Amino acid sequence: MSLAGRAARYVRLTPLESVGGFFSARELAVYKVDGSAPWAVGSSTMSESVSEGDYTNMMNYLALDAKDSDFAKQIKERYADLNGNDAYDVYDHSFTMAALDGGTKKEGAVSGDLLVAPGKTHVAAGEEVSVDLIASDMANANALGALVSFDSSKFELVDNSITKSADLLEMENLSKLNKSKDTVNLAFANRGDKPLFNGSGVVANFKLRAKAETDVNLGAISIAVGPAGDFVQIENTGEITFPEKPTQSSGELGQDSFNITMTNEALPSDSGDNVKELVQQGSCAALFNGQNDRGFELKYYYADKPFDERVGLPVNLGFTLKEPRAPNEIALTNGAAAANGSITSLKAIVTFEDDTVQEFKDGAFSSPAEVYTFAISEANAAKKVKSVVITPLTSTGKATGLERPDNRMLTIGEIDFKYTDAAPKVDEVKLDDSNAKVLYENELTKVGATILPDVGYPFFTVESDEPDVAGVVPVQSGDSVTWYLRGNAPGTARITVKSVLDETKTASYTVEVKKGVDASALVDAVEAGKKVKADLCEEQSYKALDNAVKAGESILKKEGATKQEVADAAKAINDALAALVFRPVDESKKIDLKADAVSASSSASESPVEGAVDGNPKTLWHSSYAADVTLPQFLVFDLGKETWVSDITFLPRQDVGVNGDIFEAKVYARKPAGTPEVRTLDADAASGDDGYAKVGTFTFKNNGSVLDKRDEYKQMTFEPVKTSAIKLVITKAGSSNPAELNKYASAAEVKLYSADEPTTETPDPNPPVDPDPNPPVDPDKPGNPDPENPDPDKPVDPDVPGQGGDQDSNQGGQPGEQGGQTGQSGSNQGGSAKPNGKPSGGALAQTGDPALMVAVPVAAGGGILAAIGAWLRRKRK
Fold first, then answer.
1. Among the four 117, 133, 241, 327, which has the fewest Cβ within 10 Å?
2. How many CB atoms lie within 10 A of CB 163?
3. Could you give the percent of the chain with pLDDT greater than 90?
4. Residue 458 CB-density burial (10 A; 0-12 exposed, 13-18 middle, 19+ buried)
């Protein structure tokens, strides 16, 4: 066969027809074109390796497609259109980019959704519409983009409007409008070994300007490419199709629908072998073959062969359904009346799923019939049948020469179990509790619902009564459809979810779209950054974090801050958190932990909890492998006495396995007996008691499956806390098997470190009185300012002491202020140490929580907060 004009890295031969249904060949040969040489995938210069020349060539022909005269010569004939879609797109670029600078070393299959969503459904002449490229649950993307086509007589691309989000990290923007000016070729790709994109949100944007009033109808093909060249492609044609709706069906149950038994007086029980003892053919197959022949007969004998006295009627034919069904008719076709073994009387019992029965006997069943029909009564019509027992009692023919010659023979032509399944019915559409009721402009959110009962047809549609406020964006992959809402403009919209099977069954809710930007991620980042204590970190890494936090606070105060500014500021803080390095642990302060001082929520028999504290990195603790055991799991370290603790480190398992790598852990400290209640364990702490208070939450850098730098200790550092026990609760963990993520927990070693006891600064009961540098101001005296707002042109800031709000807000007792907090609440990135215990730096954690609180009895009266603050205020020795 000729492959002229083709180039390939792999060739697959698929035999379709052959003699006897087999395939054989003496030899298979694939021939290359004479004089041709192989070249690297991604090399448009057709060289043995991808080089800078290929990058230059790629940049010269960005967005080229088959409508351009250069496409054939520069792209097609050079086999650079790798996906064969007549466009030089991000898929093609990804192979060039990933091979440059030594090539990507990243791993992982790409997954998730990538969709194109315009911000408006209708525009006036001259009006602009923003078009977003939005990722949803995207993982391991090394490149991504889309081909977005539009009617060039109605729209034009706004100059310089193609932008990428900071979330795309170091991906290069290779996007461009094609020469026909009717397709925006979005393309973003990593060059060499750069971080993969993981996450959700708007990753790119461009704007179109309307030439005339028109609806906004765009065609789009979105592509995300993994580091190995695997890809996800989503084509949005604007049309969604669903599988054919199920309707009423009828048929007959076959032999494989039953467990079949045969019993009689001589063989009262059956393990499945009685049919071989009683039936001439040795099986029940003839009862279901539709031929009504003499294929099912009790054993017979010849004069020279002795008769088996166990053979004879009555015989019970038991049919137990493997899955209860509702047959509407059961019929037995008798053997020929003139032949031996034709049934002359029988009985039957049908048992339903609720254990009620319907009996068939006497009357028509006590005389010969060509067909015996067992009709399910109207009262039982809706019930599912669990089992049927048909008992032939008498039959024709005599076994001459036997002491009891009658009823020794049986011939049955067929047994039919007929059913009619009604079309499934929908009772209701149940909305997911997670459906967002509030979103911001340009924000995307999933719409979830469940069709009840589960009839095997889960499909629904989503409609918005105000699409210009909240637009509906569907994404289809095979038969599956994922529905999204996109915030387009401020206002409210009624969202209706409708069953495809029964469009009368609907559920609705109202969504509000707010103007502006959702800054919650930046607020969270700022709060996490501010909770990190400077004295727990190395100076330079903390300074970078502090600068990022201050910049983030400025963005939060900026009027009209853009979504991109907010996203960039949040990313800068999170990057600084990710780069944060704890101050080194002091190995001389390692607490000596004995095996009997540590316990676990569960342990695998081969990896007991003592493996985490035996000083041997080759042993490990692993949580139970039992199917019903999952995260969270925890370790409890009994210190024997109250001890000041400031650090915990752990070493990931060092054997060949990776299951249970700790991605997130929460540290809790046991509160002294009798301490007034301040904080209980989170629900996910899985302890069942309230004797602990949270110290902090720590997350550790990973690739979604395993930890980074698995040969190094991971560090959790916090303000010293005095306690008699530490609980380490593992809430997220990795696995090489995606189905087992967050199921197991493991560690080769866990170490705890003591801290010097902080000194308590006792307030002077008779402090000297200093002259008041700010004597009271008489607001009624001309020229004196208002004490509540000395500068009348400056707004009151309730967060600034002395400007409204709680005048004691800077005193002790407030979480995160001078008093009341003894544990580090935001220790973000655990530094790490080599297995020898020496810290290697490298920040690992991301978020923190308010630390262990100290509660003291108080009496009524002024100055309480100040007194508590002074009592709690501490400094290091």
1. 241
2. 13
3. 63
4. middle
Question: What's the rounded Cα separation, in Å, for the pair 335 and 296?
Answer: 9
Q: Is the dihedral of CA 84, 85, 90, 91 positive or negative?
A: negative
- Cα–Cα distances (Å) from 235 to 54, 151, 238, 475, in that order, read 29, 18, 9, 8
Report the chain's mean pLDDT, rounded to a whole number.
85
- Report yes or no: 539 and 547 within 8 Å, Cβ to Cβ: no
Note the pLDDT of residue 303: 63
pLDDT digits (tens, 9 = 90+) for 2-30: 888 888 888 888 999 999 889 999 998 88
The dihedral built from the CA positions of residue 300, 304, 307 and 313, taken in this order, carries a sign that is: positive
* Residue for token pair 């290359």: 32
Task: Give the three-class secondary structure for 19.
Answer: helix
The phi, psi pair for 52, rounded to 5°, reads -60, -30
450-484 confidence digits (pLDDT tens): 999 999 999 999 999 999 899 998 888 788 898 99
**pLDDT mean over 712-730:** 95
Residue count of the chain: 877
Q: How far apart are CA 779 and CA 777, in angstroms?
A: 6
User: Strand, helix or coil at 367?
Assistant: coil
State the pTM of this model: 0.57
Instruction: State the residue for tokens 């034919």.
Output: 317
Alpha-carbon distance of 360 to 431, in angstroms, equals: 47
Q: How far apart are CA 460 and CA 505, in angstroms?
A: 10
Q: Exposed (0-12), middle (13-18) or buried (19+): which is 361, by Cβ within 10 Å?
A: middle
List the one residue out of 143, 132, 122, 285 whose CA is nearest residue 213.
Answer: 122
Strands 197-210 and 176-177: unpaired
Half-sphere exposure of 226 (CA within 13 A, CB side): 13
